[in-house]
Design brief:
The complex is a heterodimer of chains A (210) and B (143).
Chain A (H helix, E strand, L loop, with lengths): L1 H10 L6 E4 L4 E4 L5 E9 L4 E4 L4 E3 L7 E7 L6 H18 L7 E7 L7 H11 L4 E4 L2 H11 L3 E3 L10 E3 L3 E4 L4 E6 L5 H19 L1
Parallel strand pairs in A: 6-7, 7-8
Antiparallel strand pairs in A: 1-2, 3-12, 4-5, 4-8, 6-11, 9-10, 11-12
Helix pairs in contact in A: 2-5
Chain B lengths: L1 H24 L1 E9 L7 E10 L5 E7 L3 E12 L2 E6 L3 E3 L3 E5 L4 E8 L8 E8 L4 E9 L1
Parallel strand pairs in B: 1-10
Antiparallel strand pairs in B: 1-2, 2-7, 2-8, 3-6, 3-9, 4-5, 4-8, 9-10
Classes of the chains: A alpha+beta (210), B alpha+beta (143).
Chain lengths: 210, 143
């Protein structure tokens, strides 16, 4: 009961209600416009990308950490920088929390490998936060992970021009330290909305594990 | 030299007249800002709130600046779960209404800046409306 009260105080407002039963160790999240938490975590299957330092970024890199994933492309003047700036602020909030941000990573997945080389991706993500990762891969691998997360994207490459349209899901996906798809944050995104929900979820998971 | 001064001297009243004309037209702009460009990126976006104080619709048809190769009016839209940008050749301001250009919606897409833009810099952009009205606006670069 005490826990429920503490949680309610932390969560505030009406955005999310968590009921925590001391004995059953079960958390129930009510519907929320910002974060959709899946009742059954979905284990992700193998995929293979390359990160901004040309290292392999595969399923094993999602294990042991909470991962926030966002699909986009660097030649994107509006949505992508807005989202990355929001995620950088969310990370700052999480880093200031008691549990810190050591077990959290943020991964920008470029759906435009044609223009987004490792070097460009590294420069781009580091501008928003020095800890951010930038990864990309071939169409089959991008389609693979996007499909597992329910994300969609479309790149209309036009030969001979550097400017072509790219469309992508603007949501942010949350994967847990067991590499299971846990939740999705729907736009419009705000940093506090994301960090507060994440901190509650991580705390509840910690209790379950304990 | 004398000739050059004369040109400048002529320019100042002309600009003043221009500003007065747009003021008369009753279109105002506030909170105009441009996003700082991440390193290596040749594009960014401009945002503002346009206000039409007149009783007639006003139509924004173009934006120009010597600081960029091209500026186009864009809008971020979501279709079938995907967000992308579409070109808006013109944007209509309803009478006595304001229209925000904000992240995730309408924005000026600024291509190939002539110099790297850093927070605190100023960018001058001319907004052109149907009927020939031109509104010079100072945009602040923000991170």
């Amino acid at each position: 009961m005490m826990t429920a009260v503490v949680l309610a105080a932390m969560l505030g407002g009406t955005w999310l209600a968590a009921v925590y039963r001391e004995n059953g160790s079960q958390a129930v999240f009510l519907p929320d416009r910002v974060m959709t938490l899946f009742p059954a975590p979905k284990p992700l299957a193998a995929f293979a990308f390359t990160d901004q330092e040309n290292r392999v970024f595969d399923l094993s890199r999602l294990k042991g950490k909470w991962s926030f994933l966002f699909f986009g492309y660097t030649h994107c003047p509006d949505i992508c920088p807005t989202t990355l700036a929001t995620l950088a602020r969310a990370r700052e909030n999480i880093a200031k929390s008691a549990a810190g941000a050591k077990d959290v990573q943020f991964v920008f997945i470029s759906v435009d490998p044609n223009r987004d080389t490792a070097g460009k991706l590294g420069q781009y993500v580091a501008y928003f936060d020095a800890t951010f990762l930038g990864v990309t891969g071939g169409d089959a691998q991008l389609g693979n992970l996007a499909g597992q997360l329910g994300a969609v994207y479309q790149v209309e490459v036009k030969p001979g021009t550097e400017n072509y349209p790219v469309y992508h899901t603007a949501a942010v996906f949350l994967v847990d330290p067991q590499a299971r798809y846990r939740a999705v944050f729907a736009p419009p995104l705000d940093a506090e909305g994301i960090s507060r929900r994440f901190e509650v979820l991580r705390q509840l998971e910690g209790r379950k594990a304990a | 030299m004398r000739w050059r001064h004369a040109v400048f001297a002529g320019l100042i009243p002309a600009l003043t007249a221009l500003a007065a004309a747009t003021e008369d037209a009753g279109i105002s702009v506030r909170d105009a800002w441009v996003r700082e460009t991440p390193p290596g990126m040749a594009m960014t976006a401009g945002y503002m709130v346009l206000q039409n104080k007149t009783s007639r619709p006003q139509v924004l048809v173009a934006a120009r600046s010597s600081g960029f190769q091209t500026i186009t009016i864009h809008r971020s839209i979501t279709k079938q779960g995907m967000t992308g940008m579409e070109h808006s050749p013109q944007v209509e301001l309803l009478p006595h209404a304001s229209l925000p250009f904000a992240p995730g919606g309408y924005h000026l897409m600024l291509l190939n800046p002539k110099r790297t833009l850093r927070a605190g810099d100023r960018v001058d952009i001319r907004l052109e409306f149907r009927g020939g009205l031109v509104l010079p606006v100072a945009f602040e670069v923000r991170k």
